[in-house]
Amino acid sequence: MKFQYFRIASLLLTCCWIAAIYHLSSQSDINFEISFAAKDKLFHMAAYGLLGVFILGIMRPNPTGYSYNQVALATLMATVYGITDEWHQSYVPGRSADPLDLVADFLGALLATWAVRAFMRRRLAQQLRS
Question: How many C-beta atoms lie closer than 10 Å to residue 116's C-beta?
């Protein structure tokens, strides 16, 4: 029962995060104070990594944690949203669609969901040994 509340919270966070990404991608010019090469790609990886984790949180884990298929599905769903976001940006003045942003979206979602899977499996294995 308690995990059901976590899944509902994950669904709400997913919706809010998608709205935040949409809002940011609607801006013609976003200036960040941090300046380094490829900062845009790092921000994409972080944003879509978080989206992938929120999507994964909606899913019911197995007794041993999240499966490869669940990680793949969460990654795919975040990446598909990334595709729609890049398409949306192509219509925003001063913005453009960048295939490398999509690569960063995919990698961020994959790495973050994979990390959650690994952490959860390790944690459950420790609980079984105790």
Answer: 21
**Which range marks the domain in which residue 90 is found?**
2-25+38-129
DSSP 37: T
d(CA 3, CA 8): 9
Q: Is residue 61 part of a domain?
A: yes
Q: What is the domain count for the chain?
A: 1
What pLDDT score was predicted for residue 15? Answer: 98
Residue 60 lies in a domain: yes
Q: Where are the beta strands (DSSP E) in the chain?
A: none
In a domain, 32, yes or no: no
Model pTM score? 0.91
Query: Tokens 């994409």 label which residue?
Result: 44
Task: Please report, for residues 30, 41, 51, 72, 124, the alpha-carbon distance to residue 117 in angstroms, rounded to integers and kept in the order given.
Answer: 33, 23, 15, 11, 11
Distance CA 124, CA 130 (A): 10
